[in-house]
Every structure is written in structure tokens, then in C-alpha cells.
Amino acid sequence: MADPQAVKPAHTDARRRHDPALRGFASDNYAGAHPEILEALALANEGHQIAYGEDVYTEHLQYVMRRHFGPHAEAFPVFNGTGANVVALQALTDRWGAVVCASTAHINVDEGGAPERMGGLKLLTIPTEDGKLTPELIDREAWGWDDEHRAMPQVVSIAQTTELGTCYTPDEIRAICEHAHELGMKVHLDGARIANAAATLNVPMRTFTNVAGVDVLSYGGTKNGMVFGEAVVVVNPDAVRAMKHLRKLSMQLASKMRFVSVQLEALLAGDLWLRNARHANAMAKRLEAGVRDVDGVEVVHAVQSNAVFATLPHDVAERLQKRYRFYFWDEAAGLVRWMCAFDTTEADVDAFVTALKEEMGRG
Is the pTM of this model over 0.70? Predict the structure, then answer.
């Protein structure tokens, strides 16, 4: 029999178990929560509130969302981004429906097959150079509606910003929406980093969502300073069916929803969402400027958000990863992705650039 004392944890109380000085460029999900978000959570914590979204915070969130996404917008808070995308796409499709998206789309490459396995829909993917769809590219898969041997294209899904860090202009999204609607299709926008796009474009989010013709969007908060939580935002109520039921069926209905809603409210009621995004974008620009003059490093996509994609020698990248966390995007090509967050500092960026130059010099 095992000694109970031998398997007893070293500490039984809650305490900090990481080095808060540790920094990285792997993902904006690595960052903690913004202090204003934590303050909002504390405010919502005392006393009792009705569960499953009938609380005052979720009710007030609707007014906040309508300021950003139009008078008919309705927000359905969920746990995470994959859940938001799956619920949104289910609400826009029939059982025989398909979704047209870029081959690099998050719903295709980073969600473990959830849209197809859990959502029961087919993804029709299109290769792109910059992660962005166009009406012409959409036409490659938007056909065969009467062919019972083919999944029916019913939705165009775009990401703002894209998985490659690029950003659609409002006119580009408007053209996609107009074309999709002419074909009888609906438009979903994956807005995991929608705040970063608005910061880059210097326009309100409504300019490239409800005004442009988007039907439903997934609003991302976790990458922009929240602890957890996103929201499905229905912009066009006529485009969806049974959202409340789909959210529950998809295991995305939070019992203590006030703790998701109050975070979204804290982010969006003022300008916290924009401040955080502008800072993250600025740090990415600083990083881009710092590495552009390094021989052997090439930035391969326009830096239009908080992401920098670059190629560098494989051995240099591996050594650098031992000092800072980041991911290979295409290891065979030596392509890496560096992400900045709302809490990335100028000192963080400068130290990383210095480390990169040191590793390049060791080659």
C-alpha cells in the first residue's frame, strides 16, 4: 500500500506557482487579465444573481453590444472561441449545410475539427495568399446548391483579423457580404481579434460588421484582456434560429453567466477594448521594426494587428525558443509567429530583439 504521505502535495494552500517576470511571444492567450477586468469580476461577485443569463449584468450587456453592433444586436455569452464559432455556424446552417472559408481559417486549422465533428457541418476551404477571401475566391466553392451529392454552401465565414494577422478593409467585407447575400448565403465573422482590427483601421467595429452586412459574429475577449469568455453576437436576427437552444446543446451555457458578461461589459462599455488592442498592435509594430534590419530574418506578411510572421534559420529559431516561447507556423519553411499582448512592454520587445540578434550571431 502506498504511503499517503508520499503522494500528499507539497502545498495545500493557494499560492503563486509561476514567475510573473516570465514573458513570451507565443500567444496573446498567455497574458493574464487586465486589472480593470479583475475589478469588474470582484464587483459582480457579492450576493446572489439569477443563473443561466437572467442576471442584471447579462441584461445590461445587450445595451452595450448594441452601441457597437447596431440596434438589433443580441449577445449570447459563451465560454470560449471555438464554442462561439461552432454555435454561430450551427445557427446559420441546415444539417446539410456547408461553410466557405479560407484554408488558413481558425475554424479549419485550429479547432480540432469541432465545426465539422460537433457542429455537423462541412467546411469548404479555399487557399489564399494573405488569409483573406474575395468574392472571386468565394465563387470557387459557392456552387451546386441543387446537387444532392454535395454539401450545400450556406455561409461564408471570414476572420477579422485573419490567422495570418492581416486585416480586411470595411469595403472588402462589404463586397463579400453583398456577394454572399446575392447568392442566398449568410456571413459569419470570427472576431477573436476584432478589437485589433478596429484599432488598425481606426474605425468603429460597426463599420465592418453590421454596417457592412455581417449577419453573425463571434466576439473575442480572452485575447484582449479577459480571464475567459467570448460571445456570439447576432447582428441580423432574421439570419438565425434557436440560438438559446443551440448554445445549451453545444455545452456553452454558463450557469454563472454574470462572470462572463461583466467582463465583456468592462471591456466594451468604455474604451478598454481599444486601449488594449492599440497597445498590442503598437508592440507588434515595434517588434517588426526591430527585426527588419537583421540579416537572415524576413517578415512575410503585412503587420496589421498584434502578430508578426517571419522566416529565420531553423536552428536559430530553436535556440531562441529556449529563451522565449513562440510557435513555428510552418516548421519546414522556417516560418514562425510572434504575438504581442495588451501587457507586452517595450522592454519585452527590445529584449526579445536583442536575444534574436545574439542567436543569429552564433550561427
Answer: yes
